[in-house]
Specification:
Oligomer: single chain
Number of domains: 1
CATH architecture: 3-Layer(aba) Sandwich
Order of helices and strands: HEEHEHEHH
Helix content: 25-40%
Shape: elongated
Number of helices: 5
Strand order of the largest sheet: 1-2-3-4
Strand content: 5-15%
Distance between the termini: 53 Å
Number of strands: 4
Length: about 120
């Protein structure tokens, strides 16, 4: 196509603009505690799940998404970070193996004060 346009003397730009778009999906949380905290239980953390959770965090700042990792030192699919490093980098609360009692005792009012 570029060859043809050039040959015909037509000016054009090639792949010069990135246009964002949204694909609507539905999120099904693994668990929701009575205090409103959503918990994702992860053994194998795939790149697509990483992207999904970051989008949810950005689009729903009023909701609390946290992670229960089977192993903090397991690498996410891309192998750039461990589960723990990824969670810390993107400001997600996390735990390993078992939901902490402190999470179960938190109230919605306490969480709002932290913000």
């Amino acid at each position: 196509m570029a060859f043809d346009l050039n040959k015909r003397g037509i000016e054009f730009q090639y792949e010069h603009e990135r246009i964002p778009y949204v694909v609507e999906r539905k999120y099904l949380p693994d668990f929701q505690l009575p205090n409103g905290i959503y918990i994702e239980a992860k053994g194998w953390f795939r790149d697509e799940d990483c992207r999904k959770m970051r989008l949810l965090q950005a689009q729903y700042p009023d909701k609390e998404f946290r992670f229960l990792f089977q192993n903090l030192n397991t690498k996410v699919q891309s192998k750039r970070y461990t589960n723990q490093q990824w969670a810390e980098k993107y400001n997600f609360a996390y735990c390993e193996g078992r939901v902490p009692d402190a999470w179960l005792k938190e109230t919605l009012d306490e969480r709002k004060k932290e913000d």
